[in-house]
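User: I'm putting together notes for a lab meeting next week and I want to include a structural view of one of the chains we've been expressing. I don't have a solved structure, so I'd like a prediction I can at least talk through. The sequence is below, exactly as it appears in our construct file.
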Amino acid sequence: MNFFRLIQSESYRKGTARSVLFNIISKGILFLLTIIIARFFGSNIKTDIYFFVFATMILFSGFINSIDMAVLIPESMRIREKESNDNAISFLNFFLLIYFLIGVVFLVFMYFFGPFIFKHLSKFSYTDIALYHNYFWVGSFFFIFHILTNFINTILTSYKYFSLPMLISSIKSCIAIVCIFLLKSNYDVLSVFYAGITAYAFNLLVLLVIMKKMLGWNFKIKIPNIKKITWSNIFYAELGQIATVASSMFPLYLLSGFGSGILSFMNYGKNIADIPNTLVTTQFSNVSGIKLNEEAAAADHTAMNYTFIETTKLLVFILIPLGFFLYVFATPLVQIFYAGKYFNTLSVDQSAMFLKLLAVSVFCIGVNTMVTRVFIALQAIRQAFFYQVVLNIILMATIWVCTIQYGAYGYPIGVIIVNVINFFGMYIVIKKIAPFINFIDIIKYTITIVLINAIIAYGLFWASAKANLSAFATIILGFLLYLIILLIANKEFKLNTRLTQLINHVLQRLS
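Assistant: Thanks for the context. Below is the predicted structure for the 511-residue chain, given as structure tokens.
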């Protein structure tokens, strides 16, 4: 394959296939980074602080970036189509400048008040916060790099450069890994922070160069004429995101008070549980989201329903078996990836339990993401706002009650409960906002796929318990058997024909 062909605009089919392929490579390298952290540094207060700070910066930047796909990109595409590409660039440049200024102000604020802020955001002791105050300050740089690189990646996606961000991200992760090896002997866990910042700086520089060279981007700042409805959508998108950030911060706050290592165990398990949605959902929804935006602009509701149904069914067909597989083989997976000198049997068991519970409802996240893309395409930001707020309040209350009852594992149990509630609740919301979407078809299809995979997973669970093989052999044989049985079932019962088309397309492109 000629990699220079990736630096070009792509069709939706090619974009989906290529972006998923390169996202697998990119996220695989990024996951290797987590394995290195576990094997080199184990689970302790320092790794707890790293995961807490990194997750917090992701959430804070996600709060800012929430308007990218929800408001800014759809509006820029409208401006590009109705007015001119230059006006669309000016519109995006204006917000790129705002993001940069927000990042600088945030860094200055964290320099002076970081320890005080994290004292109230977590249950870490003030002694630990004071001892590792530099972790919090250095980690704050992730925020400015996240908001800028995320925004630019979204811009490239809107111009149908689907694969390029994944390729650059792969190089970025490799740089981070190399930096950890070079710095770990002198800086311990702090080396992970320095490595990440170095890699993100490289990533940002390359993205800016590509925008200039490939898109002919003009970075001149000109105040655009922004409509009142756009500001209104930004307001409601950010307002709704407050509830999402709060519901995501709340479990981090609770888990930081359960003792040294617990937050790390959760993150190690969660990093594996997130693999299906990270590798598949993100890319499928990004590509389909752009297509839904175009169909919504043309008021083609029939096409929107087709795009939503086909993509969501494909996600369900892929995510449900992956979730069952992670649940059944959680312990050998954790053993293979993390077990080592600083990661003992107890650590494996605790991370595996988090993995099992978090894997149960991964498919709900994929469906929810596609529903969100529909609302974004329709610019139904305000209408979806109240549902988002109520759902996140329920999530926080459920997690709080479950942690009281079940301790640290109450967090994933609460997530399961609310994900299931949300799955059926989306039917009510989408019926009101987008009645032309046949969501009941998704519910019936999901139940069918769950039942089929439950039978397969139970058989593999029973067989693996009897086989008594090594962790590596268990995973390889279990995956192959699951894949073969699933592909046979798909062929016999025609569960999902689009998956077959995508596989054939990828094979053709690679040949």
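A couple of points you could mention at the meeting. The chain has two domains: 1-226, 246-511. The radius of gyration is 22 Å.

User: Perfect, that's what I needed.
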